[in-house]
Every structure is written in C-alpha cells, then in structure tokens.
Design a protein that fits this description.
2 domains, 11 helices, mainly alpha, about 210 residues, about 50% helix, single chain
Length: about 210
Amino acid sequence: MPDFEKENKMDSLYTAYFNREKETNNPNEIWQVAFKTAKRLGHKKLYQCDHPGNYGSLYAEIEEYAKEHNQMNILEYDAKGVTKPKTNTLNRDSLMQSMTLLDFIKWLNSKEVQSTAHAHYVNVFPQIGHTDVYDYKKNYLLGTKLTADWYRRNIYTYSKMINQLDYSEKAIFLLIGNDHIPIIRHLFESNPYFEVMDVEKWLGKME
C-alpha cells in the first residue's frame, strides 16, 4: 500500500537491499521477485499502487447470510451457474513440489487459471443475498456489494499506476495478486496509450 511509501518503509528496505545491507531472507514476492528484478535492471526505486478493499468484512457478511438462508452451496461452488477457481481445485503445495517456480508462475498467469479466478467474482457472489430483483428489501443483492468493491479496488489500483507515470517509460512490470490481473489487464487494454504483453511471452524468455 502507498502509505508504506509515505512512511519510507519500502524505500528504505529496497535501498538497504540494493546496497547489500539486507539479504533476501524473506520468502514473499516483494523480496524474491520485485527487489531482485528491480536491482537486476538497475532501478533505484519501486512504485506502489495497491488500494485497500473491504473483501474480508463483506465476505463475512455474505457468509453469515448464506448460512442463515440456505445459500452456502453457492459459496461452496455446488450450485448452478457458479465457477470454481482452478487454484481451488489443486493442492498448491504438491503442485509447487512437482514443477519449477517458473512453471508455477506460468500456470498461475495462464488464461485458464485467471479466467476461472475472475469468473467466480462475477457469478458466485452476485447470487448471494436477497436476489428477488423486483423487491428492494434488506440485503438486496448482498453479494453484489463484494463484486462491486472488488472492481472499485482494482480501478483505484490502476489509477494509482497511471498517475505515477510520466509516459516516457518503455515498460511497466506489475507484481500483484493473481486475481487482480483480469480487471487491471482489461483497463490497460482499453487505454490506447498502452500495449499489454502476454505473460507467457516474457516468462518464456527467462528459460
């Protein structure tokens, strides 16, 4: 989140890493991917763009409603018209043991995986709540609030990205959670100032 930038936490961490004052002993993607990639390219600064969302509180609200109104089968992907994300069908630990990290990242970024991840935001949550579209009573289309908030968060994230550019950049490398990509990708594809490169192409060059 950009508030870390204001507190100088990310900048100071990356500067320390860049100057070899800190090692990559943290297993998360900031250290293992962002810092390593930026240093390899000679960048002195990383830019943050994430925006807070209300997924946790909204999910708790719709889960409570679903339990009380016999709709848990929707959240458990056992109802008509719902999509189960590919990431929920496999044991991620065993998958990582059976393939290289590069292959695992390719799998996460594949259109098949990302399309199912995105689909469940648009066909699972909107079916939760009071769904009589002609009756605007309490909890009307409750789960739709989560989907709307998810889009809001990603649009704000996209806005923070383009507002940190001076449009002299040759490329932007975004490191973010997998589920965010379909919406952010659509926004960049809709902006004529950008050309989106398929992940498979540039990851293939790393082999």
